[in-house]
Design brief:
Chain lengths: 868, 868
């Protein structure tokens, strides 16, 4: 039979699986010679035995821990269950992985009527003794005996009101004794300390199977078999008088990252009082002034722990009657700014390696270097919460249309554009807005994608709002009315909408951050590209480290005011000749735009996707707009309505779009090829090195690729022959339909690259329309039917499996294909890790996600999960 | 080196791969001792050598076939290239599999100026000789030398007009000789017979690579490597005089199937004349009257061949100067009625086994027993062609709305309902229509699915028609206007729309057909269920052999006029309480309908799918209908518009539907469970044995199933406990999303059956909306980008692969799950074969497809592809 009980001096930090995380750390500190109140740990293996036996503790267990208990008593100089000189315990659960939903700590275990009386005598402080006792009963009843804690609070309040007391400090020893008496009428409380201990151990084990713990394990793939350990530790008291106290401290400043010991201390207070914030703590230096010896011990201890754990530590300690005790140490939480500074400085100090430094920075933390962020401390008046669609914080005047946004911005105002949803026609307003807020749409809705692309803060799917354009208001479910011209603040990182101007921390470039990025580039294998259409976005992306464009959505070039009518006229053409006239005009626009892109991305690959959206997306919707268009392009409104009606679709996402357009209208593809290669020729003549990669979207089989490649090759050769010039180019396919992934081995011989369009692939794999899923995804998350929005974090189980099939089978067929991802997942760290593991060559994301992708790619390559 | 040339007495019918199908049959007949004009065959292996050598005949080949030729000359008593006693050849391609696009036959090979003169002398018939010669030059130039045949026709016509001739019979020997002279100015014709033969052999080999042949092979998975054989056969002539002639005959009547020798004969005519129908042939018995000995030989031959090949034969024969020759035998084409009769009778005659009989009947043939069919001979005035959505033929007066349809039908008129598309609101009109014709929609559109379900003839996606409701007309692209009240005929088997009343053959039950079906039931492993919602459909399905209901779409029960408003009121409810009121009303409807279903399907399983479509599908669309509804249910039109607007979706197919409804509105599921189990209890109390199977639609993961199963189980147990009764029931899932199939192994532990909803699965795997794909699928078929509409024939490569993953992985996880298919593919023979091979337990299809599915399932189990 394996050893079931370990004393604190019998384990180390490497024994997490056996002793739980908390227990392993207590052992480690004990081995370091630190003054840890002594105790023992019951192993996770015992927990497994407990379940196997049908929730029964092993017969010999009590005997085993009684042996350990004897040794603890000797070391602590007090005895468990002895009224003369009582030893009390705290009992905690401790799983190998930190896990919510497990049992809370029980403090002061070992008290009963007799022992409390003894404790009162020994300490000369009956109020302390009875307060501790009533707290213990309440805690024990709540977490071990499953009695509703409300009942106890109710009794205290009743007692206070009938006795004219208000605060806990008004309560005397006798008052607490009376409360204990009342409590005992509510619960069948066990007086035997050993019985208490046994019940507590059982309760810890049973808490492994609370619904919340089960769901958490399922969500995080934690094996059910692990089980939890139980740590039993001697109590020490910081509330014994003025020579006692409790404190928490950080080995470095958790807010700025400065290398400076930083903490708080409360004299004559228990540990939980510091955390609860009942009194305002003093800076930890106050302890130095009053008890320099103890402070010196504390200071040395924290320095030792940081060096030992090689990370900034968050420590808890207690001083009892002038004696210093360490209660806990763990990696300290920190702000983004601090995490970068600490990581970089620790490398300089020789404490950690560059790759370790990379693992210390969570990608969420990096946001702070890219956008202004709402100051968490300043948050107030949160009136609605939507999806955190594009990070950053911004404040501005509310407008309800793109036109208003332009007008107000022209007057120098910062504006927040509020819409039910956005369409490509709103782009001009989105460009000038400081923030975007929509009632509808998910994480990959038009508003979300465009905002992230522009680096503008956005909240989408905020269905707590009801937008009324006519009235110029947005009303929350709670009845708060936001009107045109009101000032509001958006927190794009949390999805919160606030009234008024809330303080923000500015985006700040920092040398440390640049150093970290340079390390990321050194350690990553995945290339990072950006999704961009405009020269400005391309330049920004390059500045942020993009190594090419992974997705240029050519249709975006046709939405500008001076072009959309030409595009519409092309779509509304009734003969091939008529269509050709307008295609010739579009050719000029497209050529010029792509030329600028090639210049901005000189020497880097630019992946250009052929026209993808359904044609009706370009046509006007309202009667008014149709009539106006009719007048502008000189076509009867009746005719426009008729053609638009014919083009309308029930499910446009699964309709006449993508390469299906090339199949039916090869002349559109011919025009696009002319524009791309014509631009490449011009760029070359202007001294640049363009690297065009032409991407065919929404492919279902190899015959489409063959047909379209023929059109592309023919167009290219005509131009190159005429110009007598040679341009390197690639033809590839976007992998968006499940069918393309399942047949990738058949596509392989015909393509040079495959880029996973995981937005569409997710839509089709789930049968979730990204435009409509906002209606039920929140309910799915709320009911824990899914762990994450699959449009944000790539679903590895099905979507990822299709990608895996595609990569493995096409690679087996042909070497040298380049693999990329250009869906929104290309900027999501967890998805980037998956792409790395799958062996893709690059990810492509919004320009502002590029630095995050660089770090995530490095973290994936360094190999260990970030420890956040 | 393998033998390259085989004489007709050196092979057998088993040598198809080596000698081609045609060659193998000639050898077989020769071995049977039948009088086949002798010849030889150049092997398919020689063809492969030819390609490997860069389209060059092997050096030794000519030497080899000259040896064979000597033997042929000896046997035929004439010599190739000898003007005194010339032997002529027919040269044919012959692939192992019959294949369009290959080279045509060349007749009379071996003629040149000198030999023609000799032939004229020998036969004493110069006109015959020169007519043969000019035919040969024309044919040779066309198929070997690739000269446009039009040129030759043009010369003949010019000659005739300048010489005052009209018909070929007006042409004398001299006329044909002059034509030959003119022909020779058009083409560099080789005079050397051996050169002719060599060129013909090369031309046969090269024709293996015509584009048409390549595409055909790709479509039918015929390996490119096979190659074709060349058969070279001595010519015999039926046009030598009155003691000569040609005939074709069938060993049984190909139209009725009667066991009676049946054929046609032309005196003094070549074989091609019989086929071309220049003169009206006589019944073959005429030969018996004039040449009883020859007839006797013919009759014995046909009887021998049928017995030998064990199938009805289609034979060609020629009589030259009183001598009987067999030219060809092959399985004869036959009508559906005949195929069934012949198959069943041949079993009775002991000629074939029951399972062979099953393989002799093509499922297309079976249609004739289920629906009236348009008589192919009577077809005329075809004004438009659409998709053959639901088989059968029907004639009626054109109406343009469901209401008109009802009115006209009430007056006793047969009506054809013509719509742009149909929606559930048209059902009442569809029920009374004799046929349905829609401008839009594919093979799985609403119109198509409903029509097939009702067994009503339908043509969908007929985009050659432009329907104008207001004008009451449907205008074809050619300008033909079909007006309200006009009589038209639909051929649902071909998709043809005809003006007027076209003759039809009545659907006729036949004893033979019933016998065949009983054999099918004996030999199949797959069970066959039907998709049905009404007791009538269920009864019909059962009568046609359905072994349960595989899909009952509960939503169909809410579309009736007296229910739809309750459904709408439920959807428009603003509180759970309000919704419950209407749910309680719906409960009654649903309960009663399902009770009837259970009674109709007493003792057989009934799979009931929980509510599936997006809720907005139930709401009215037009302002007028909204206002009317507002009045009827007493809710402000404004409110209705608002809620309808909120429910509207961009891509409803990927939206808020399926089990997502159960997640958000569990009360709907609770109502449905109450209806189902309540009905089961009542059915049981009425002495029936209901076997409900509750099916959860559009699942993406196991947590949905767990959540909904909990709701279902709870509802069921409440009722069963209250009634103190036990009802066997199953809970299962529809497999429609790619994600469900990829995660089937995770779903397995929670379900008792899985039914593949291949309509949706195809939509998502392809990214093809079945409502919209009509816009591009025809172009895809036309450009050969796909081989078949994936909504008609299951795509095995991707959709089938997902099914395979699902079945294999879930079966590995848990034994005993029942697998079925309930998409439209469940009634498609090719798809049924796939389902059989995959090891599914049942297919479910429209009631009228049940007999076809029974036969297809048997054919799949018997194992060999049907030989049609």
């Amino acid at each position: 039979m394996a050893k079931r009980v370990y004393l604190f001096n019998e384990g180390s930090k490497d024994d997490r699986d056996l002793l739980g995380g908390k227990g392993a750390n207590l052992c480690e500190m004990t081995s370091l010679g630190l003054p840890v109140p002594f105790g023992f740990i019951i192993t996770t293996g015992t927990c497994r035995e407990f379940f196997q036996a049908g929730n029964k503790l092993p017969t010999l267990l009590e005997q085993e821990y009684r042996v350990a208990l004897d040794l603890v008593e000797k070391k602590m100089g007090a005895r468990f269950g002895d009224p003369e000189n009582p030893l009390l315990f705290s009992v905690r659960s401790g799983a190998p992985v930190s896990m919510p939903g497990m049992m809370n700590t029980i403090l002061n275990l070992g008290l009963n009527d007799e022992i409390t009386e003894g404790l009162a005598k020994k300490t000369g402080n009956p109020r302390f003794a009875y307060d501790s006792y009533r707290r213990f009963i309440q805690m024990f009843a709540d977490v071990v005996m499953d009695v509703d804690g409300e009942k106890f609070e109710h009794e205290i309040n009743q007692y206070k009101s009938t006795h004219g007391k208000t605060l806990d400090v008004d309560m005397s020893a006798d008052d607490w004794r009376e409360i204990v008496r009342i409590y005992k009428t509510l619960v069948d409380f066990p007086e035997d300390p050993f019985e208490q201990l046994k019940m507590a151990v059982e309760a810890v084990f049973l808490s492994w199977h609370t619904p919340r713990a089960i769901v958490y394990r399922e969500m995080n793939n934690i094996p059910d078999i692990l089980g939890t350990a139980v740590s039993v530790q001697s109590m020490v008291f910081g509330n014994f008088g003025d020579d006692s106290g409790s404190g928490v401290a950080f080995t470095r400043n958790p807010s700025t990252g400065e290398h400076q010991f930083f903490g708080e201390y409360l004299f004559n207070a228990a540990g939980e009082d510091v955390v609860a914030g009942i009194r305002t703590p003093l800076p930890v230096e106050a302890l130095g002034e009053r008890m320099p010896g103890v402070y010196d011990q504390l200071f040395k201890t924290q320095a030792l722990l940081e060096k030992h754990y090689r990370d900034m530590q968050d420590i808890e300690f207690t001083v009892q009657e002038g004696v210093f005790y360490m209660l806990q140490t763990r990696s300290g939480k920190r702000t983004g700014r601090a995490s970068v500074k600490i990581a970089v400085e620790m490398v300089k100090e020789g404490l950690i390696t560059e790759s370790e430094a990379l693992m210390r920075v969570s990608t969420d933390h990096v946001e702070a270097f890219l956008h202004p962020m709402v100051d968490p401390a300043a948050k107030t008046d949160i009136v609605a919460t939507g999806l955190a669609a594009s990070p950053g914080g911004s404040t501005g005047k509310v407008v309800f249309s793109a036109e208003e946004a332009e007008d107000e911005a022209a007057k120098g105002h910062s504006v927040i554009l509020v819409r039910r949803e956005t369409t490509p026609e709103d782009i001009h307003g989105m460009r000038v807005a400081a923030g975007i807020l929509t009632e509808l749409g998910g994480m990959t809705s038009h508003a979300a994608v465009v905002a992230r692309g522009m680096g503008v803060c956005a909240i989408t799917g905020c269905d707590a709002l009801s937008v009324d354009y006519a009235a110029g208001t947005a009303t929350t479910t709670e009845g708060v009315v936001i009107s045109r011209g009101d000032t509001i603040t958006l927190d794009g990182a949390s999805g919160e909408v606030m009234l008024g101007d809330i303080a923000k921390t500015e985006a700040s470039s920092s040398d440390d951050f640049q150093v970290l990025l340079s390390w990321a580039d050194k350690y990553r294998r995945l290339k990072v590209r950006a999704n961009a259409e405009t020269p400005e976005d391309a330049a920004k992306a390059r500045e942020l480290g993009a190594e090419g464009i992974g997705l240029c959505r050519t249709e975006h070039m046709f939405f500008a005011a001076d072009r959309i009518d030409v595009m519409r006229a092309m779509i509304l053409s009734e003969t091939r000749e008529e269509r050709q006239t307008f295609l010739d005009q579009l050719l000029t626009f497209q050529h010029d735009d792509i030329l600028e892109l090639f210049k901005a991305m000189d020497g880097l690959p630019v992946t250009i996707r052929l026209l993808d959206p359904p044609l009706h997306e370009f046509l006007p919707q309202t009667e008014e707009d149709i009539n106006a268009l009719a007048e502008r392009i000189g076509k009867p409104a009746e005719k426009i309505r008729e053609i638009a009606g014919r083009l309308e679709e029930v499910n446009p996402m699964l309709g006449f779009r993508g390469c299906r357009l090339s199949v039916v209208y090869p002349e559109i593809t011919e025009m696009q090829v002319k524009a791309i290669i014509g631009a490449a020729v011009d760029a070359t003549e202007q001294g640049c090195r363009p690297l065009p990669e032409i991407m065919i979207p929404l492919v279902i089989n190899v015959r489409e690729i063959r047909l379209i490649t023929k059109i592309i090759d023919k167009g290219i050769h005509e131009i190159l022959k005429e110009k007598n010039i040679s341009i390197p180019y690639k033809i590839g396919t976007m992998m968006e339909t499940p069918r393309a992934t399942l047949g990738a081995y058949r596509l392989a011989p015909e393509v040079e690259f495959m880029s996973f369009g995981t937005n569409d692939l997710t839509q089709m794999t789930y049968g979730f329309s990204r435009d409509d899923a906002g209606k039920f995804i929140p309910r799915y998350l709320e009911k824990k039917l899914i762990d994450a929005d699959p449009f944000v974090t790539l679903d590895q189980r099905a979507v990822g499996r299709l990608m895996e099939i595609a990569v493995n089978e096409s690679r087996a067929k042909k070497k040298g294909i380049k693999y990329g991802i250009c869906g929104e997942h290309g900027g999501d760290p967890r998805s980037i890790r998956f792409c790395h593991d799958l062996g893709l060559d690059y990810v492509s994301c919004s320009p502002f996600r590029v630095p995050i992708a660089r770090i995530a790619a490095a973290q994936a390559n360094v190999g260990v999960e970030p420890n956040d």
